[in-house]
Design brief:
This protein is an alpha/beta fold. The chain is built from eleven helices and eight strands.
Length: 278
């Protein structure tokens, strides 16, 4: 998810070789690149096979088109407020509340006025900021600039509203479980982000699946809505797109391309030729 997923690193240049797959038939090639939506400045990922895929692609497919990404903030502001304020003390255990307050320090989230899912989003953004990450240095931003310069079309698999409604429509118990889990683990958030970034950078799909899915796997309803159902929709889009000749670079959050129910795994199960190319 562009609003949640990030990677960690330093200000110096970091060489990265993220995993990428190719699904192809006689006249269609679709590259599937697992991304980090926010990265530290100087992360060198846009080279080698990725540069070749971008150069050969006729179009770029992202989770959100640039226009939809630009609208996400306003839609978040419209969806996030609660009908009635609820103090964080009534949502979190004392231990989770203490960790939440520590993360919130210096930047009041106004959480009592927000739905649980919205507080979760703001927590993720704060962790990214503390890690020195910026969406401007993320994979999507870099690819968008490359394709715009080349005059190639850029599209999105989802709208910003659809993406945020995945959280808004989670049942209250699931939202509260996700929030409580994130708060309880807030002290370890930077370490977890670092582990995720390291796995992504070296293209370790198994390690990446473990790090990214570890928390959400504990909440089946959230996993179904945020990961599994979307993977099925996106693999369906690819299956349809395979009927049209050409080359596409599809760049989506890395968590969607790893694991047993990932987009590449679903396509392979349907009989498509899927090859990891990086």
């Amino acid at each position: 998810m562009p609003l949640l997923l990030a990677a960690c690193g330093t200000e110096s240049e970091v060489a990265a070789k993220p995993a990428m797959w190719l699904v192809e038939d006689a006249d269609t090639r679709i590259y599937m690149l697992g991304t980090m939506h926010a990265l530290p400045a100087g992360t060198d990922w846009n080279r080698g096979k990725i540069a070749e895929a971008a150069a050969s692609a006729d179009e770029l497919m992202l989770e959100l088109s640039p226009q939809q990404l630009a609208e996400a903030g306003a839609i978040f502001q419209a969806l996030a407020p609660r009908d009635k304020p609820l103090a964080m003390e009534k949502r979190l255990s004392p231990k989770a509340l203490a960790a939440y307050r520590k993360l919130e320090a210096g930047n009041d989230f106004g959480g009592e006025k927000l739905d649980d899912w919205a507080v979760l989003v703001l927590m993720g953004q704060k962790v990214a900021a503390e890690a020195g990450l910026s969406p401007a240095d993320g994979v999507e931003a870099g690819l968008t600039a490359t394709f715009r310069t080349a005059g190639k079309p850029i599209s999105g698999l989802e709208s910003a509203r659809t993406q945020l409604m995945l959280f808004e429509t989670l049942d209250p118990a699931t939202q509260r479980t996700l929030l409580a889990s994130a708060a309880e683990n807030a002290d370890h958030a930077l370490a977890d982000v670092s582990a995720m970034a390291a796995a992504w950078s070296r293209g370790d799909a198994d390690a990446l699946a473990k790090v990214i899915n570890e928390d959400v796997d504990r909440v089946p309803a959230a996993r179904k809505a945020i990961i599994t159902d979307r993977n099925r929709r996106w693999s369906g889009w690819i299956a349809t797109r395979m009927d049209k000749p050409g080359t596409v670079l599809m760049a989506v959050g890395a968590g969607h391309l790893v694991g047993t129910d990932s987009v590449p795994a679903l396509l392979a199960a349907e009989g498509y030729k899927v090859t990891r190319v990086q």
